[in-house]
Amino acid sequence: MFARTLAAAFLAIVTLTATAQTEMSRPKITGISHLAVYTSDPAATEHYYKDIIGASKQPDPENPAGVRYALSATQFVEVLPLPAGAGINRLDHTAYNVSNVERMLKYLAARGWKTPSLAMRGSDGSKWFTVLDPEGNKVEFVQPPAHPKAPDAPNAIGTHIIHVGIMVHSREQEDTFYRNILGFRPYWFGGMQEGKLDWVSQQVPDGHDWLEYMLTSGPSGSGIPATMTQRQLGVLDHLSIGVKSVDVAYKVLEAGNRLTGRHDAHTQIGRDGKGQFNLYDPDDIRLELMNFHATENPCCSPFTAEDPSE
Q1: Same domain, 251 and 282
Q2: What is the CATH number of the domain that holds 119?
Q3: Nearest residue to 272 via CA among 286, 284, 288, 287
Q4: Share of the chain residues as helix, strand and coil, in percent rounded to the nearest 5
Q5: Is residue 126 located within the same domain as residue 183?
Q6: What b/e readout covers 32-70, taking b as 16+ CB neighbours within 10 angstroms?
Q7: What's the confidence (pLDDT) of residue 3?
Q8: What are residue 55's phi and psi, to 5 degrees?
Q9: pTM to 2 decimals?
Q10: pLDDT higher than 50, residue 20
Q11: How many domains does the chain contain in total?
Q12: Model confidence over 192-222: pLDDT tens digits?
């Protein structure tokens, strides 16, 4: 009897150890790498990201047909040619920086997620691979090069992409990937009206950048609702650059005659209590300038993790 009990205890210890090792095998997900978008007018898009946002134009190590507009050594907007049949969609993928891309690939495969057999390697020494999330959105994991170079972007309105947002139909379905498997942590949630949930934010597990579910009232399942316009979709699929003061950033854009194209009429305080100002690229992808920290109390829920910073 004693031997049987001892064997059961040993098996339990082995099982717990194996589980812990599986959980520990996930490499660090440290923050946002980039948002990849399509352009129907490369010249207009270059003017927007280079002259208005102030990013540095660079070749694309992942795709020779693409262009990068870099804000820092490890964060950028990737702009790709508009593919045939894209319809109103202008988002190709979101991407996150990881400490070890091969380990991330093995980790996801071990958890039963469909992955490619190998990671890709860019001309700059970076490595990456792409998977689909539960609603079919492309998600890329990137290991930056060993010695990434800071871009020449002295006029960048900000240098830190603090969050990206994607259209989401089912919070519960997406959570099975981002929270249960990847370990993203709750940050804040809210809505335009009390009692209605529109936005759910969760930070990467090893940093403070976050992913924002932009919940849609369209039909359940994946895909773009038939009634949605390109402009509406561009509001949902977006990126955000953190700044100390949105009001100061607005004045810099105004003084430099950089407020061309489509943008909000003025700065505002969002429902999360943070200052914000929205600009839109020529294909309607929204770029949200946002204060790192709230200046008013947020609606709907408290913040449950530290804010990102410069």
Answers
A1: yes
A2: 3.10.180.10
A3: 288
A4: 20, 30, 45
A5: no
A6: bbbbbbbbeeeeebbbbbbebbbbbebebbbbeebbbbb
A7: 45
A8: -75, 160
A9: 0.91
A10: no
A11: 2
A12: 888 889 999 999 999 999 999 999 755 455 6
State which residues form the domain around 65: 29-143
Evaluate whether residue 75 is within a structural domain: yes
Sheet holding 76-81, edge to edge: 56-59, 67-70, 76-81, 29-39, 91-98, 138-143, 127-132, 120-121
- Contact assessment for residue 225 and residue 218, using Cβ atoms and an 8 Å cutoff: yes
The DSSP code sequence of 84-137 is TT-TT--EEEEEEEES-HHHHHHHHHHTT----SS-EE-TTS-EEEEEE-TTS-
Which phi-psi region, left, alpha or beta, contains residue 300 (left: φ > 0; alpha: ψ -120 to 50)?
left
Q: What are phi and psi of 288, to 5 degrees?
A: -105, 110
Token readout for 298 is 């947020």
Q: What is the token pair recorded at 95?
A: 């991407």
